[in-house]
Amino acid sequence: MVDRWRKIIDSIVKLENIEKKINQMDEINVSLTINLDNSSLESNDDSSVHTDEIVHRPKYKILEEIGRGGFGRIYKVYNRHKDGLYALKRLCFEGEFQDNKYISAEVYCLSKFKHPNIIILEEFILKPNRLYIIMEYAEFGNIEQYVTSNHNISSSDILQFFSQLTSAVHYSHSQNIAHRDITPSNVLLTSKFDAKLADWGLATPCGVDRSNPILSDDYLGDYRYQAPEVIRNSPFDPLPTDIWSLGSILYFMLTCNPPFEGSEATILHNQTNVGVSLPDSVVNSSDKLVNVIVKTIKFLMVADTNERPNIETTLYSSSFTNDLENDMHDIESQFLLNI
């Protein structure tokens, strides 16, 4: 089932690569550890890192702050031992870090998950009341930063990123974990232009028995990308919320805007009574790949959780997938005619 979706995306990328080669020809013709060593960090003019962490030739040198969120700050660091760049996330806590469910969730997921489109953990560094998570460094930052820096994402790249994210979410759901915070700021882009899902602090177990799911009863996250059941502030099944958020990511990559804005009440009203609305320029696009993306957004962003697709089955085996395959066949035929 997953292979069918992969085949669709691969055909898109294949066409894109062929087109690039033709254009080039035309131009020619024309490890996980809990590290208790206090000598692991060195600050580089960063006042938020205490001087007791500055020691002779530590393993990591902090270069600059590259982000911050509700649970901590993120720095670009240099690993002297491996001569490479990494990202360091600093989390503060009181007592034992295991008592903080959000820190525990991130530690659990990063240490357990092994997937090419989930951010790779290097190690943990544990200090009194602070935990440092060392991860792979994403050279292009997150998708929100990339798009707002006036970088247009091609329709083929959008579908490529979407394929990678659905693969990551499919994997986490197979491990009975829902991410619950899939937003453009939590999707990172590596130097190879691969999308990686990060920031697992809101992740939660969802239960093995899907007829009796474990309901979530906290309502955090960016409501512009959250499903209506989260904004209602009543216990909800976390798995379908990830599906909605995947649609929200697609919407942002296509339009450079979140699908909904305003107060919580306004967003909820529009989600449940108006539905997702796309610009006319997108809906009426002659680009068949854009049409595929629009169809996918509408398929995922359904307010009723009973009608929203399930990532393991409906998303990959429904008539919707057959429609995408037919669309791709038309695109391939048209492309070959134009060569």
From TrEMBL:
Q: Which GO terms describe its cellular component?
A: nucleus
**Binding locations of ATP:** 89
Any Pfam family from its record, for instance, is Pkinase
Keywords for this protein: ATP-binding, Kinase, Nucleotide-binding, Serine/threonine-protein kinase, Transferase
> What PROSITE patterns does its record include?
PROTEIN_KINASE_ATP, PROTEIN_KINASE_DOM
Occurrences of domain Protein kinase (ranges): 60-321
InterPro entries assigned to the protein according to its UniProt record, in alphabetical order: Kinase-like_dom_sf, Prot_kinase_dom, Protein_kinase_ATP_BS
UniProt GO MF annotations: ATP binding; protein serine/threonine kinase activity
Name under which the protein is recorded: Testis-specific serine serine/threonine-protein kinase 1-like
